[in-house]
Amino acid sequence: QVQLVETGGGSVQAGGSLRLSCAAPRRTFGRIVMSWFRQTPGKQRELVASIAPSGTRNYEDSVKGRFTISRENAKYSVSLQMNSLKTEDTAVYYCAAKAIGDAIYNYWGQGTQVTVSS
Question: What angle do CA 61, 42, 67 make, to 5 degrees?
Fold first, then answer.
């Protein structure tokens, strides 16, 4: 079973920055869409950012201009640079992957906690 391995996360004060990284399968890296989701207790998991093999990026409206998703092809990994963090960004963040054209994300990381304090 394919597993994604996340690193990063932690606690930071509002206005600060954090960086998340996700190691993806080498064999399929060039053919998969990589994304970051987040979830808070009692709420549905929401898509934060995604990046296609072409480099095309999409962001959830509340993080535009603050978060940057990048593919690091040489490392078969994806990062999420989070700047100007707000308390409402506090959540468990998940790395996920799916094949191009698929609607369902089949591969997930274990999740990493991001806590932003005021």
Answer: 25
Which amino acid, 1?
Q
Asked whether the beta carbons of 36 and 24 are under 8 A apart, the reply is no
Residue 96: per-residue pLDDT? 95
Q: What's the rounded Cα separation, in Å, for the pair 41 and 49?
A: 20
From CA 66, how far away is CA 5, in angstroms rounded?
23
Count of positions (residues) in the chain: 118
For the beta carbon of residue 105, count every other beta carbon within 10 angstroms.
20
pLDDT, averaged per 10 consecutive residues of the chain (118 residues), comes to 84 98 86 95 96 95 98 92 98 94 91 97
C-beta separation of 112 from 7 below 8 A: yes
> Phi-psi region for residue 63, left (φ > 0), alpha (ψ -120 to 50) or beta?
alpha
Distances (CA, A) of 88 to 13, 72, 78: 12, 28, 23
Residue 80 burial (CB count, 10 A): 27
CA angle centred on 64, ends 117 and 75, rounded to 5°: 90
